[in-house]
Write a structure and sequence with these properties.
The chain is α/β, with parallel strands linked by helices. It contains 13 helices and 14 strands. Helix 10 links the parallel strand 10 and strand 11.
């Protein structure tokens, strides 16, 4: 048995928590302690989560416990087994609270080699004297290939909008490059009417004024604002209709949406920086070169602690050039199917995440 503490919802931690539980449950019983109330999307999922929570009644107190949550909140675990912290973070440094909590655990799981190096750079040892390099392990996140099935999309050749459709998914944030994406789009296509930019970026943590700022910034007849959907299946049904995902992120803890686009066989334009470098390469992505970093500041979530990628005029030009390239290929009816992306997504399955977890924990 293994004990898991994680949220269950449609945000990043919640998707990771649910899918890791589901993958591990194929090999051993999982006892789930949700963080907050589970937000499920179907009766089937509700019954499944209820079953995992029911295993808490007879949990194994000696089994490992994995806490999939923020690095500043690693104090609560279940039982007396190995305590594993699994944070998903975006920046290159930790504050003192984060360091204190990360040092307190027996083992740390991170999504990428980029993240592992940050842990090593910031924390030499934990409170029991173990070197962080020895107790920090890379457990890449995954994608549900039964939902995001690019081979089906290729076979169907279903009708899609006649325009070239670019897509971004992820809650409104400066960190995700939403402040520059619209500029790159307009720079690439100042007059074209046969292009669209679909933005599914609703942020439940924003105030009405903050949301209005983003709505006004993206006020263009070629931009389609899509409300947040309730399930991964609904996300897939949107992704299958677009041509290319654009992710000009300054920093990411993983970037699940980019991997999902690859699983759908779609083109991906993305910064060559932070955690998604674990799966984004020259073969499967149109990379945006990052020349420098800057202080991470947006006045809301980030206040100058740590650095992220600097997105300047050169990066905006690169994004624009990539978008124009995709548009020409689509309008010329050239094959834009991202076979390399689909192959990559197949390697990063949730089952592989579970197998790596079991190997590291020796369970």
């Amino acid at each position: 048995m293994i004990n898991i503490i994680a949220p269950i919802n449609q945000l990043g931690y919640g998707i990771a928590g649910y899918n890791i539980c589901k993958a591990l449950d194929k090999y051993m019983p999982v006892s789930l302690w949700p963080i907050g109330d589970p937000a499920v999307t179907s009766d089937v999922q509700a019954n499944y989560v209820k079953g995992l929570m029911g295993n808490r009644n007879m949990f194994n107190p000696k089994a490992p416990c994995i806490r999939i949550w923020h690095q500043h909140d690693m104090s609560q675990f279940v039982g007396g087994g190995k305590r594993v912290g699994f944070p998903i973070f975006e920046l290159d440094s930790f504050n003192e609270l984060e360091k204190h909590h990360l040092r307190s655990v027996d083992m740390i799981f991170v999504c990428s080699e980029w993240a592992k190096q940050i842990v090593i750079n910031n924390l030499e040892k934990n409170y029991w004297g173990y070197n962080m390099e020895d107790i920090t392990h890379v457990i890449p996140l995954g994608v549900d290939m039964k939902v995001f099935d690019g081979s089906v999309i290729q076979a169907l050749s279903e009708p899609k909008p006649s325009s070239t459709v670019f897509f971004n998914c992820g809650k409104w944030e400066v960190r995700k490059g939403h402040d520059v994406l619209i500029d790159a789009f307009k720079k690439a296509f100042p007059d074209n009417e046969d292009v669209q930019l679909w933005m599914m970026c609703e942020n439940p943590f924003n105030s009405p004024d903050e949301n209005n700022y983003w709505y006004n910034k993206y006020n263009d007849p070629r931009v389609k604002l899509i409300p947040r959907v309730n399930s991964q299946e609904e996300v897939y049904n949107i992704m299958r209709k677009v041509d290319c995902g654009v992710f000009p992120a300054r920093a990411e803890g993983w970037n699940l949406e980019a991997l999902e686009m690859m699983a759908c066989g779609k083109q991906v334009i993305i910064t060559d920086f932070s955690a998604h470098t674990e799966f984004c390469t020259e073969e499967n992505s149109m990379l945006v070169t990052i020349d420098d970093t800057e202080i991470a500041y947006d006045g809301k979530w980030f206040h100058g602690k740590g650095e992220w990628a600097r997105i300047g005029e050169d990066q905006i030009e690169q994004i624009s050039n990539h978008m124009r390239s995709v548009h020409v290929r689509v309008q010329n009816h050239e094959n834009t199917y991202n076979k390399a992306g689909l192959d990559t997504a197949t390697e990063f399955s949730w089952d592989n995440s579970a197998i790596k977890i079991m190997k590291v924990l020796d369970v």
